[in-house]
Structures are given as C-alpha cells and as structure tokens.
Design goal:
2 copies of one chain form a homodimer. Chain A contains 9 helices and no strands. The first copy, chain A, has 2 domains: 48 residues, Arc Repressor Mutant, subunit A (Orthogonal Bundle), CATH 1.10.10; 142 residues, Tetracycline Repressor, domain 2. Chain A has 209 residues and is mostly helical. Chain A starts with 14 loop residues before the first helix and ends in a 5-residue tail after the last helix. The relative contact order of chain A is 0.10. Chain A is elongated and about 65 Å long. Chains A and B meet through helix 6, helix 7, helix 8 and helix 9 of A and helix 6, helix 7, helix 8 and helix 9 of B. The structure holds a DNA duplex (30 and 30 nucleotides). Chains A, B: One of its GO terms (molecular function) is DNA binding. Chains A, B: This is TetR family transcriptional regulator. Chains A, B: It comes from Cytobacillus oceanisediminis. Chains A, B: Keywords: DNA-binding, Transcription, Transcription regulation.
DNA sequence: CGAAATTTGGAGTGAATATTCCAAAAAATG
DNA sequence: CATTTTTTGGAATATTCACTCCAAATTTCG
C-alpha cells in the first residue's frame, strides 16, 4: 500500500522553519534591491539572515528559486502598499494622496534604489524566463489596480466619458516607472514629481464640469 | 632633459589598434545590451570580437573601464539618433515622427532589450559610481535635447505660453523610459505607444489656437 | 518517552571568470 | 634596414561563488 503520490513533495516546514525561510527571503530582497540580483551572493544573504549554507539550500533548491520568492515578496509588498491608495480612488485629492505616498518614499530613501519591481524587471527580463513571467504578471496586476481606481473615479462621476481608464492606467504606470528611474539616476525627487504631476494634470483635463 | 610629464600617458593607437579597440566596444555593447553587464563575461566579448585576452587588457585596464566606454558608445548612438528628430521639432507632425521612430525600433526588435541607456542605468547606478556619473550626464543631455525641441516648437508658435518645456521634456523622457520598460516586460509595443501618445496628447492641449 | 522528521553548522568541491604574463608577430619610425 | 613600438596568441593564475555533503542538534508527534 503506497502513500498517495505527491509530485511536488515539499518537506513540511516547522514554524521555526517558516521563520528562517522568510528571514532569508527578506534579507535577499533587501540586498537584491540595494545591489541587484547578480551582485548579491548567496554568502551575502547568509550573513544578513544569520544562517549557514546548509540552511540556504535546505529551503531553496538554487539561487533562481530564491529570486522567484523575492519577486513574489516585492510584488505583494509594492502592490499591497499601492492598493491602499488605489482601492478607493474617489477624488482628485485621493489621486494626489497616492502621488504623495510615492514621492515621500523616494525622498525617505534619498532617491536610492528606484522601484523594487522595476529594477528586478530590468535586470531579469532578458535572462531568466521564469522570473520574466512572474514580473510580467506583477505588472499586469499593478496596472489593473490602477485601472480599477480610475474606473472608480469615472463611475463616481469625477471624470467625463472621454477618459479612457485603460490607456490612462498604462500611461500612469509608465510615467511612474520612468519617473522612478530618472529620480534614482539623478538622486533627485524632481523627475518622479513631474512625471506624476504631469499625468495627473492630464487626467484632470477629463474632470467632469 | 626629461620629456614633458604626461599623467594620463596613453599608449598610441595604430589605425589597426583603434579598429580592434572599437570592435571590442561594439561587441561588448551588444552583449551587455542583450544580457546585462554582469552576465557578460570578458570571454564572451573576446569571442564576439575575435580577440585574445591579451588584447582585451591591452586596450582596457579592467572590465569597469570597458563598461564606461560602452556607456559612452550607447549614449552617442541613442542621443545621436534622437537628435535627428529633435533638432528641428517644428510641428506636431515632427513630434509624431519622433514617436514613430521610437515605436518602430521596438517593433523591429520584437520589444526585446528595452532602452540601451535605461537598462545600463538600472543595473549600474547603485553599484558603480563612475558609471553612475556618466549615465546621469547622458540623461541630462538627452533631456536637454528634448527640451530644446519643445522650446523650438514654442518659439515657432506651435505651443502657447502655458506650455513649460522644462517640465514637459522631463515628463516625456520619463514616459519614454517607463514605456520602454513595460514594453520590454510585456513583449508588446502597446505600453510605449500609449505612454508616448498620452504625453503628446497632453502637449497637444497647449497647442496654439 | 522515543523514533522520525526537520533544522542547523560548517567544511569542502568544482566551475566560472577576471586578470596576468611572456614571448612572438606585425607595424611604425627614423 | 634596423630599431622601437604596438599588437597579438595563448597559457597560467587567482579569486569568487554557487552548490554539496555529512553529521549533530533540535523539534515533532504518536
């Protein structure tokens, strides 16, 4: 009598095990955000997470697998934060609160690091197929939550029917990404401020009455 | 009697030497564009450029020095191409020709690779100080050539006095960068098209009469 | 409690990769 | 043409880094 076959037989994780695992992911995410994936060695992560190499490979098959977890971690962190602002975007004040949230983060970090998802995207898209897929999904999800916010504004009657939430959402996300990159390069909040304000000004041209 | 001191005593380069040197830079630029700087090994470049390792280190002190040359090469290539469109931006048709130029490139490359400067920026800004400085200058120069184009439109009377070429140039460059990143991630020209068209539509709101 | 499973420590391995070195070929120079 | 300079070939080195292995400690669970 055999036990039921389980293809993806993952070893069970103790509470302690789960803590160690997520400590590794968080440490890796921070390092990879600060210095990129390629520059971040397994040893770096080991030191930051206070673990030995056996632990590293006990929880992750290889570096690539850790990278996928980092992508997922950053995705939920970034999108979760933004959704707080986007889920009830009921006015231009709310839109500007979202803008302020983004700008404030950059100022707090001295304009270092750029977007946690954008930098992973740029580094991984061409060289890691699985990472590429994950990142693409993340961006679709992000775009979608912006679109929903704009649709909500439209339904609330804040925007007139000339406003196209699909196009505006994509253009906003692009402005956001480009603005963050330029802010990172310049070490100056101006680009992200102007990129977002210009797009918001454009959206304002669809304001009802 | 001493020869005059020359701190940065560079060995003279024969015509043949210059050819080899630039062959190395071009090969490195292509590889680094396709797979990133970190992923591109010196050996990769040697094969692509058909040279031996002694030649590599005869022309460049170390990989970092080659990277700086690649940045400079990509800068002149990208900005040179764009300047052809931006230097006499005399109408909205000219603005749209620039847009088409950018979009067509992406389509031709199957939306792979993103922006040659943007990807270098994202990979290097946080980990290579000298590269950071070069890239920052490149972006300032690029922004400046966009600004000059818009000023030209303003002076020609295409735009009214509410148009701020400084802000619009920065916002356009941000939209361009973000649009290229999303197009690269999605492998779809839509993001760059919508990002640019939305900004151009916004600029259109400053059209005179 | 006691067997089984999980977690951890840390040394060790092998491949990838940047860089060096020496000597020969080719080109420039006077 | 002889000498100096530049260019090239290719082997050798040294270091970084992902990943493996084995045994011990700890935890889980019947």
């Amino acid at each position: 009598m055999n036990k039921p076959l389980n293809i993806t037989q993952k070893p069970k994780l103790t509470k302690k095990g789960q803590e160690t695992r997520s400590r590794i992911i968080v440490a890796a995410a921070e390092l990879m955000y600060e210095q990129g994936v390629a520059r971040t060695t397994i040893e770096d992560v080991q030191h930051k997470a206070n673990i030995s190499s056996s632990q590293m490979y006990h929880y992750f098959k290889e570096k690539k697998e850790l990278v996928l977890e980092v992508i997922s971690y950053q995705t939920s962190k970034v999108i979760g934060n933004h959704r707080r602002y986007l889920s009830d975007l009921d006015s231009f004040e709310a839109l500007n609160a979202w803008r302020d949230f983004i700008v404030d983060i950059q100022i707090k970090r001295n304009c270092e690091g750029g977007c946690p998802l954008g930098s992973l995207a740029s580094e991984l898209v061409e060289i890691n197929t699985e990472a590429h897929q994950e990142i693409m999904s993340s961006f679709f999800e992000w775009e979608d939550s912006i679109r929903k916010g704009l649709r909500y504004m439209l339904n609330r009657g804040e925007l007139n029917s000339n406003a196209d939430p699909d196009k505006l959402a994509l253009a906003l996300l692009a402005a956001l990404q480009g603005g963050l990159l330029l802010t990172q390069v310049r070490r100056d909040p101006e680009p992200i401020i102007i990129a977002l304000d210009t797009m918001i000004e454009h959206i304002n041209s669809f304001k009802k009455i």
